[in-house]
């Protein structure tokens, strides 16, 4: 990755798919779990969005910074609005990261890595869980799914 703008563009090509995936979800499907100890469908969505927020703020602040607790929701419409707001807020944090932060070393979860490596790990984490979301949605009976990457 050479620039923060390049990272943001690549990340959004995946995050926009998460938004599309939620278009077919119904409120009654939010608590669906593929297995007893698994995350709920909505829990997985919140894990995806919260993790990227945490990674972005951690890089910006130079130390581990947990994400803010998710906004309360009851309906799929509220969850979609929360995801949209979180995406916008995370993009703003990413845009505020100084270019030199990408080359600086940061200690996260007992590992040292550059800011660029941290953001790549964050994007890989999101892609991994987005793949799980495809399975969740199929198990929930949703047949209409978007392509795995947004090409708008």
From TrEMBL:
* Keyword Translocase among record annotations: no
| Coiled-coil blocks | none
Residues annotated to bind a divalent metal cation: 47, 125, 129
Note the Gene3D superfamilies from the entry.
Answer: dinb family like domain (1.20.120.450)
Q: Name one Pfam family in it.
A: DinB
Mind listing the UniProt keywords for this protein, alphabetically? Answer: Metal-binding
- SUPFAM superfamilies (UniProt xref): DinB/YfiT-like putative metalloenzymes
GO function terms (MF aspect) = metal ion binding
Q: Does Nucleotidyltransferase show up as a keyword for this record?
A: no
* Sequence similarity: Belongs to the DinB family.
Q: Protein name, please?
A: Damage-inducible protein DinB
Q: Per the UniProt entry, what species is this protein from, by scientific name?
A: Paenibacillus lycopersici
